[in-house]
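Hi F.,

I've been meaning to write this up properly since the lab meeting, where we talked about keeping a consistent format for the predictions we share between groups. The idea is simple: the sequence comes first, exactly as it goes in, then the structure tokens exactly as they come out, then a line or two of notes. No screenshots and no reformatting. I'm using this chain as the first example so we have something concrete to point to.
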Amino acid sequence: MLIDTHAHIYATEFDNDREEMLQRAFTAGISPVLMPAIDSETHPSMLQLEAGYPGQCIAMIGLHPVSVKEDFANELAIIETMLQQRAFVAIGETGLDYYWDITHKQQQIEAFEQQLQWAVQYDIPVVIHSRESTDDCIALIKKYTPEGLRGVFHCFGGTLEQAEAIIAQGFYLGIGGVLTFKKSGLDVVLEQLPLDQILLETDAPYLAPVPYRGKRNEPAYLLQVAQKLADIKEMHVNELAAITTANAKKLFAL
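Output, unedited:
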């Protein structure tokens, strides 16, 4: 039994075979699948999928940093309204992205801080995107962890020092397909870390693990990530699954 803690299964890449893709995941023992939000354009498709698979596909709510533009205040207002209307399992995905475009860097920081504040206010975890911005994200969460902020750095691919700094704040590391890439170096980092703050994810449809690298990712491929981590830790994959599933249930109150 595995939980995919981060998959955009409502994305258009799955429009032709979404039901079959989900059945492959459930047959493989992967459930639930947690769905991070992107922005108001995709909220409806995400929520529709959640309604169609209650308890199996579970929505978060948030504004992805790449979607932060001049109108980000409008996007945040939509999220705030939704938070007032119903419960969500997490705020996310939010964070900072300095890889694609830093035109709206200051707006990204403002949007991220607002979402960190909501995570504290609503007492739910935050799911953090930190591409080329891990140190800045760590600095920002430190402002709010004394208030009870908790969460996960999704798609972690940083250094051992960054991993230790994240864990020191009580946060989890989300580990996905990058772990299976030969030159990622993530295997060496994880070898030196305990499993009690590790979560598994796919980030589907992105970052498919070996041997599917370069193809569309999907939750069923979480098995490859789990097996790779089990090999690194020299343990049976079932034991690894039990630990990471318990971690996910604890963080997301599943």
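Notes:
The first strand starts at residue 2 and ends at 4.
Residues 28 and 223 are 8 Å apart (CA to CA).

If this format works for you, I'll send the rest the same way.

G.
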